[in-house]
Every structure is written in C-alpha cells, then in structure tokens.
Amino acid sequence: MTDTWFHTTPDGGRSGPMRADDLARLFQAGRIHAATPVWREGMADWAPLSSVASTLGLPAMPPPVPRPPLPPPRRGLHWIWITVLVLAVVAVPTLAILAAIAFPAYNDYRARSGVVEVVAHATPLRLAVQSAHAQAGRCPITTSSRVPGADRAAFSNADVDAARAALLAHARVESLLTTQGALEVTAGHIDPADRCEIMVRLQGFELAAIDGQVLTWWLDPDTGHWTCGGTITDRYLPAACRN
C-alpha cells in the first residue's frame, strides 16, 4: 500500500498526491480540518481525516459533529399570486359599487328611450287626427270608451284608424325594448273647447312608474298646437311632455 494521500477541496475538487506528513502539516496549519474527506489507495471510499488520524501520526480526534439537517423552505404564496389576491380584494367592492350605480342608470336610460320611441311613433297619429279635424271641424273618435255617450259612427276617419293600428303594431314589435309600447290608443274629444285628445297607455317596461300609465296629447283647434302630458313620472318623459 503506498503512502500517497489525497484530500478534497472546498470547491469540490481534490488535492494530491502527497505524503502522510504533508497531509498532517496541512491539518496543523488549519488548511484542512477533521471533517475533510481524505483517501489513499486501499480505502474503499473517502473518509474524514479524523478517522485516519492515527495513521497520519496525529492525535486522536473526535468524529466530526454531524450537521443538523436544514429546515425545509417555508412554503408561501408567490409574490405574483399575492399581488393578484390583493387586486382581487380591492376590485370586488369597487366593481360592486360601479354595478350598483351603472345598472339602475342603464335601466333608466333604456326606459326613457322606450318612451321617447313611443312618442315618435305617435307622430303619424297626431298628424292624422289634426288633418281629420281640419277637414271635418271636429275630432275623430276611434273608440267610445274614453268619451261616455259618444257614438263611434258619428265620426270616424280611416286615416286615424290606420295610424292608430300602426302605432299599436309598431310599438309592440319594433320598439327599442322589444315588448314595450302601446297597450291602448284612443282618440276623441274632450271638453271644454272641443279639444282633440289622444291617449296612449304603455306596457312591457317592467316599471310601475310606466306600465299602465298614459301619454296624452291635446290639440288646440285654433292654434293647431299639441300639448303633451300624461301620468308617467317626469324622469321618464321627454322634456316637452313634462309638467
């Protein structure tokens, strides 16, 4: 067996070959330690220097103290997920507040748009009633339900009846809100001054302030001016129809 030794280096390499007394001097100089792995021919594997101290002529050394195992790394949320979580916590209440503001405002806008569209679709009916009154000197009557004692046969007008039917059909089918529109449309005269009246009862808005309420127009025969009003809450009425 040769007296040629090797020892490991801190960077994972090895140093040697060297004689036993050279290895001992390295230990005494503090360049290697009791736990430094050493080897020579005939050894099955590398062994700590302390285990071969007597062979090297060194005093007996206690075996190296085993290093305690490192604690496992603490598992935690990655900073990206922490950021996402914080943003989510902040965003949820913000979105809830925005929704609470936006949804009612959007529903009001849709309701107002539906009423405005019905008002626009009623224009041909107003023109037909005004034209019929100009020709006959009195208001055409489309139904007796609004005018107690009135006789439909006393004065009706085909153009007025056609415009009324078109308003009913168009408002129900083509309104901005599909089912919104006119539930009932009547035309007739009211006292005093024999003013012509048109009443449009609304449906399908799913709002108590609109469903079942009426839009009403009155024609002043002398001036030809229509006055708009009704029982609908002002916030849903066009500006020209508000009280």
Folded structure, characterized:
- This protein is of the alpha+beta class and 243 residues long.
- The chain folds into 2 domains: 5-52, Dna Ligase, domain 1, CATH 3.30.1490; 103-241, Glycoprotein, Type 4 Pilin (2-Layer Sandwich), CATH 3.30.700.
- The protein is 34% helix and 19% strand.
- The chain has helices at 20-28, 79-121, 123-136, 158-173, and strands at residues 5-8, 14-18, 37-40, 47-48, 181-190, 195-203, 214-220, 225-230.
- Strands 2-1-3-4 form a 4-stranded antiparallel β-sheet. It has a 4-stranded antiparallel β-sheet with strand order 5-6-7-8.
- 22% of the residues are buried.
Secondary structure layout plus pairing:
Blueprint: E1 5-8, E2 14-18, H1 20-28, E3 37-40, E4 47-48, H2 79-121, H3 123-136, H4 158-173, E5 181-190, E6 195-203, E7 214-220, E8 225-230
Antiparallel strand pairs: 1-2, 1-3, 3-4, 5-6, 6-7, 7-8
Helix pairs in contact: 3-4
β-sheet strand percentage: 15-25%
CATH 2nd-level architecture of the largest domain: 2-Layer Sandwich
Remind me, CATH topology of the largest domain? Glycoprotein, Type 4 Pilin
Distance between the termini: 119 Å
The backbone outline, from C-alpha atoms, is rod-shaped
- How many domain units? 2
Mean pLDDT score: 74
Q: What class would the helix/strand composition place it in?
A: alpha+beta
What percent of residues adopt helix (DSSP H or I)? 25-40%
Low-confidence stretches: 144-154, 172-181
Alpha-carbon Rg, integer? 50 Å
Walk across the major sheet and give the strand order: 2-1-3-4
Largest sheet report: 4 strands, antiparallel
> What's the order of the H and E elements?
EEHEEHHHEEEE
Number of strands: 8
